[in-house]
Amino acid sequence: MTEKAFEWPIRVYYEDTDAQGVVYYANYFRFLERARTEWLRSLGVDQVRMMQVERRIFVVVSTHAEFIVPAHFNDEIVATAALGALSRATFDIEQKIFRGDVLLLRSGVKVALLDADSMKPQRVPKALFEGN
Amino acid sequence: MTEKAFEWPIRVYYEDTDAQGVVYYANYFRFLERARTEWLRSLGVDQVRMMQVERRIFVVVSTHAEFIVPAHFNDEIVATAALGALSRATFDIEQKIFRGDVLLLRSGVKVALLDADSMKPQRVPKALFEGN
Amino acid sequence: MTEKAFEWPIRVYYEDTDAQGVVYYANYFRFLERARTEWLRSLGVDQVRMMQVERRIFVVVSTHAEFIVPAHFNDEIVATAALGALSRATFDIEQKIFRGDVLLLRSGVKVALLDADSMKPQRVPKALFEGN
Amino acid sequence: MTEKAFEWPIRVYYEDTDAQGVVYYANYFRFLERARTEWLRSLGVDQVRMMQVERRIFVVVSTHAEFIVPAHFNDEIVATAALGALSRATFDIEQKIFRGDVLLLRSGVKVALLDADSMKPQRVPKALFEGN
């Protein structure tokens, strides 16, 4: 990965935190998906058109995350997304969350493209990530 | 309403709380819907069959809630549901949340029955609430 | 209310929707709180300082909402906030959610200011809403 | 792992699903934490006492999950939890989610025990998992 990652700013609200005073661990996965969605949008991918017209959807196949430093209520953080390995039927997205220069979280997801009716895997078009 | 309300027990997990150390206000509405869903199930209403076979769905038209005493992580609470006013196109459900004898929250929702395709209101069958 | 309401743009992600294909009813209350938080910030209210230094927190006492038109995945919507009635111990916030010119939701909340340790109500300073 | 895993039944509500008609990927992590919390309770671990009296909290250090088959609205599923590797400062929990005999998800988390004030790691007492 030498290209610069896509960056998406996120504000932490009460809804994101829990009684330990920090962001609830499952909610980081929401933040990560917002960054992926906006990264795909920045590449010209229209997920509504995909679902309604082409009947194709993206589905998370697997994920992992390391929780390094917690985020707190009101923090301004940044979630990143960058294309990792691309195979015939899936692609990997490498993601991080930062608060300023501090790395809070490191994650990766493997995503498949499915036919929304048959739920069968579709070939992932390489052109998807070429941004035009 | 003289009949006894339906009761559904709920355990408060970290996911439900926020950094103020109590249940996040929007999450009580999740608890209330769990109680409504289970109350409907207890009356023999099969929401999956309704949606998939009959193409009819329940939709919340309006709601109100008074937050009286907060619930905390690990609390065992009970959400209730009881039929309120029933009109041609909507019905009201009166709901409360208790921790033991302590009333934590008082709420009400107005629910409509819609055609899932046209999203047009359907007549609410009175028999729905008679539990056959 | 003659003054213009504060406006906060929100994008609808998958996390906000449910299997009926629209935003899950409880999640609108998250959107409404984001708008309130950002409105307070725009008035110079620092909720982190309030909680940590002054040990005072805002708490929702009651709320109501009318769900008029549903929002869908990927919609760009706007949540508003405007000061309503202000009493000694509470204040009301009038809120709406729009998609373009279409009114999706109308809501109100009554908020109290509490001492974070004793949980006793505090007098709400009128200056809070004067924006300087 | 030869011992039988702890099992916790979960009902899928609308709150858990998204507009793809299945459980939203981040919400499985909520289900997994419910099972861990109940497993710890079954071993006699009182997390409220731990936090309030002993000032010690459990924190998820890392996690991974494979999403094999999706769960739908109204499904009755079971989340499991079983102790994996135990080191001085962390322990692993191996988890699965089933619908009947169908494996929906396979996951693991690494958990640390922290001092709630200093956020420094504490030695994990082996006796914790012996259920006395």
Describe it.
- Chain A is α+β, with helices and mostly antiparallel strands and 132 residues long.
- Helix content of chain A is 18%, strand content 40%.
- Chain A contains two helices and five strands; from the N terminus they run E-H-H-E-E-E-E.
- The first copy, chain A, has a five-stranded antiparallel beta sheet.
- In chain A, strand 4 and strand 5 form a beta hairpin.
- Chain A starts with 5 loop residues before the first strand and ends in a 17-residue tail after the last strand.
- The B-C interface holds B 20, 25-27, 29-30, 33, 51, 57, 59-67, 116 and C 20, 25-27, 29-30, 33, 51, 57, 59-67, 116.
Properties at a glance:
five-stranded antiparallel beta sheet; 132 residues; elongated; alpha+beta
